[in-house]
Amino acid sequence: MLSNFKGKPDQAPPPGPTPAKPAVAAAPSPPQPAPPRPTEAAPASATPARPEAICSIGSGTSIVGNITCDGPAQFYGHIEGEVRGSDLLIGEGAEVVGNVIAQEVTIRGRIKGTIRAVRVKLQASGAVEGDIFHRSLSVEDTALFEGSSRRVENPIDTAKPAPRPQLAPAPAAGAA
Predict the structure, then answer these.
(1) DSSP letter string over 54-106?
(2) Verdict on whether the full-model pTM lies above 0.90
(3) How far is CA 126 from the centre of its chain?
(4) Domain layout of the chain by residue ranges
(5) pLDDT, tens digit, for every residue of 137-174?
(6) Residue 129 near residue 146, CB atoms below 8 Å
């Protein structure tokens, strides 16, 4: 088919096999740029794809349940449940009803619940109703904060013992 596009119909039948070989030679030329793309993908997979894997929940989204993100996350919707991640942004218009546990939390929306993070930034449009356990806390002038703030060396570690009470009732129910 390439011979029909390249030359005249009179020249196509005899040199048909010959132009096909250069056409095949021309086809490998585009794959030469293609190997750098997998090479670029290989370093991204060597690092846990953090720059590319950003969890995002849009403003029209409502979630009931717990959310865990391995990398950075941005929330603009409504969430009821526990949110865990490394670097969280609670955007303007977002609302989280539940606990937030992360390395770093930037709050521009509303949180009703306990925040446990190494670094908490409550920005001007942000509002928190609940307690904040942190190592570093910054609150801008017009931000709203109703609750208590406590500096803790490892705020994330203190959040882990919560699931243990759930295990105790199961053996009691089996014995009865």
Answers:
(1) -EEE-TT-EEES-EE-SSEEEE-SEEES-EEEEEEEE-TT-EEES-EEEEEEE
(2) no
(3) 20
(4) 55-157
(5) 999 999 999 999 999 999 988 655 444 444 555 555 55
(6) yes
